[in-house]
């Protein structure tokens, strides 16, 4: 890494550097921060959203609307700080791993292994985006980040600083492939998922659906009790001998003694009352209840052994009066720190999954939908807003749609991705992510020509754009208001137009409405439209100051709130781009 040459610095520069060093923290990551073009741009221009109407997808008005934003994710996150501050439940990201093999672009150039500022550039890049994303999380929100060994240690320390060491949840290894070669004698078969909470004291993680493959048997009680497994014999010789638990069981026309002994040896053991030896695990009363309620089974391979059924959703319990009964339960376990080493989480599986939809060679190293779904199932809600600001091929979107279909949830997603660079064979947003979402939502034919039904859903497509900042002049304010409609609709989650002209716009979802007033000259006409709808309304009123003109709306009979624009937007940007 090249050393800084201080010989040409003047006195003020040197003093500033000394003060900077003196104030530097005593523990944590310290790196040479590198300027980034997309960040610097926001000093001169303000990001806005523009809808690409022809890319909208609607299949069912009863379903929630998800979003896709094309553009640099720094700009997307900036806009989302206005539209979605503290509204995101879960963030999942798969950032570039900084391998040096053309996976990480900084200031329009690939960062290779020989770059002396390779790690500094990556840290400068990810740190700014993580800070922007933190403010989007709800107070009980969670972020999951995929990463490998190259930046894992740096990322962990950086996240400790941004989210707080006490908000760390877990670092879970994920299998990337089952086989591999290495020139140094160790095949690298995994990467990691690092997770943090915004406030871990508010997080209520649930157990994922039970994934024990041993629950593979079904009987006539399946609908009530679920599947079962046979992993315990009724007789044991390692629990210590108990005379009262050494008795004859008559079951399905056969006689059974603990340890498969003969009647003669059974009687000898009873009389000798040894310290150790075979006996039943259950009392005679519990066995009688078990037989009556179909809880015992002969070994399917060896008919001379009795097994107890272990059902997924039921167990035998005993009340205070000593009476046995069937208790229905949700037998689950916490997500294990080694839960992601199954091959279904591998890159090979993810690649095949994507190829079935888009064909071969479209995208390198996608993540599997099973990974995202497993992470989402431990979050205790089916009504989540999930953000992925390194959306890539769109795995997160497909995972959310599939999970909603599986458990009848109403989750929605926000995918942010750029469209690649001129060197790319495909535009990531236009040629990969969006086509995948369209096919998954509406249906498609796979590579074998077989029809795959769509999962349904609604999607709005936006691109980031900019308006000149011009020191936030009145012209800037007017331009920002003209370009703010899409941002306001995204903020409110309401897109159906009721009124649309140069003076005002009104949107509604039949439950509430949103009004945007550009010209105060049409305030009476605007109010009349609002009153006619008869719905609670959030009104955005153009003002060169922070004045909301609240006295002009005091006669409205519907419930309302007033937000000044562009000041409400500018307040967010002033904090982000100070």
Describe this protein's structure.
The chain is of the alpha/beta class. It has three domains: 299 residues, 3-Layer(aba) Sandwich (Rossmann fold); 107 residues, no CATH class; 108 residues, no CATH class. β15 and β16 form a beta hairpin.
Give average pLDDT, whole number.
91
Helix content: 25-40%
Beta fraction of the residues?
Answer: 15-25%
Tell me the CATH architecture of the largest domain. 3-Layer(aba) Sandwich
CATH topology of the largest domain: Rossmann fold
- The radius of gyration computed from the alpha-carbon positions, rounded to a whole number of angstroms, is 31 Å
- CA-based shape: globular
CATH class of the largest domain: Alpha Beta
Number of domains: 3
Q: What is the CATH superfamily label of the largest domain?
A: Vaccinia Virus protein VP39
Number of separate strands: 28
Q: Which spans have pLDDT < 50 for at least 5 consecutive residues?
A: none
Major β-sheet annotation: 10 strands, mixed
Distance between the termini: 30 Å
Class by alpha and beta content = alpha/beta
The helix tally amounts to 16
């Amino acid at each position: 890494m090249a050393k800084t040459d201080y010989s040409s610095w003047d006195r003020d520069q040197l003093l500033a550097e000394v003060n900077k060093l003196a104030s530097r923290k005593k523990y944590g990551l310290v790196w040479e921060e590198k300027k980034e073009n997309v960040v610097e741009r926001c000093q001169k221009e303000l990001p806005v959203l523009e809808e690409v109407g022809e890319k909208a997808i609607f299949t069912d008005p009863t379903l929630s609307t998800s979003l896709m934003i094309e553009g640099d994710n720094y700009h997307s996150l900036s806009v989302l700080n206005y539209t979605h501050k503290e509204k995101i439940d879960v963030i999942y990201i798969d950032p570039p791993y900084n391998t040096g093999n053309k996976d990480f672009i900084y200031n329009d150039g690939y960062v290779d292994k020989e770059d002396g500022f390779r790690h500094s550039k990556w840290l400068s890049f990810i740190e700014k985006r993580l800070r922007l994303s933190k403010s989007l999380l709800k107070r009980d929100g969670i972020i999951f980040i995929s990463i490998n060994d190259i930046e894992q240690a740096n990322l962990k320390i950086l996240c400790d600083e941004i989210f707080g060491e006490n908000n760390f949840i877990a670092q879970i290894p994920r299998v990337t492939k089952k086989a591999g070669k290495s020139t140094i004698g160790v095949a690298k078969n995994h990467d990691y998922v690092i997770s943090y909470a915004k406030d871990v004291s508010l997080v209520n993680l649930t157990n994922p659906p039970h994934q024990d493959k041993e629950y593979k048997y079904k009987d006539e009680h399946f609908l009530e009790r679920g599947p079962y497994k046979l992993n315990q014999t009724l007789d044991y010789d390692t629990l210590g001998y108990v005379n009262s638990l050494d008795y004859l069981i008559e079951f399905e026309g056969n006689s059974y003694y603990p340890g498969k002994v003969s009647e003669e040896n059974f009687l000898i053991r009873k009389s000798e009352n040894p310290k150790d030896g075979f006996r039943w695990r259950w009392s005679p009363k519990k066995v009688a209840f078990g037989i009556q309620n179909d809880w015992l089974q002969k070994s399917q391979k060896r008919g001379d052994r009795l097994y107890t059924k272990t059902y997924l959703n039921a167990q035998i319990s005993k009340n205070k009066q000593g009476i046995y009964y069937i208790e229905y339960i949700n037998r689950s376990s916490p997500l294990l720190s080694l839960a992601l080493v199954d091959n279904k989480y591998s890159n090979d599986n993810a690649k095949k999954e994507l190829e079935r939809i888009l064909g071969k060679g479209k995208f390198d190293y996608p993540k599997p939908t099973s990974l995202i779904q497993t992470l989402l199932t431990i979050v205790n809600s089916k009504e989540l807003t999930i953000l992925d600001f390194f959306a890539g091929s769109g795995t997160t979107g497909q995972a959310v749609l599939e999970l909603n279909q599986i458990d009848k949830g109403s989750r929605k997603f926000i995918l942010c991705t750029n469209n690649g660079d001129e060197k790319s064979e495909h535009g990531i947003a236009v040629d990969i992510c969006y086509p995948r979402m369209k096919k998954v939502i509406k249906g498609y034919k796979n590579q074998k020509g077989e029809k795959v039904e769509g999962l349904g859903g609604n999607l709005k497509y936006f691109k980031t754009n900019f308006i000149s900042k011009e020191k936030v002049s009145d012209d800037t304010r007017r331009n920002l208001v003209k370009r703010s409609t899409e941002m306001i609709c995204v903020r409110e989650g309401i897109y159906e137009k009721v009124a649309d002209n140069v003076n005002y716009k009104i949107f509604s979802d039949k439950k509430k409405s949103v009004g945007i007033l550009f010209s105060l000259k049409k305030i009476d006409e605007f109010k009349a439209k609002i009153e006619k709808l008869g719905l609670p309304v959030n009104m955005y009123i153009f003002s060169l100051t922070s004045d909301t003109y609240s006295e002009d709306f005091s006669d409205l009979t519907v419930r309302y709130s007033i937000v000044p624009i562009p000041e409400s937007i500018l307040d967010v940007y002033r904090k982000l781009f100070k």
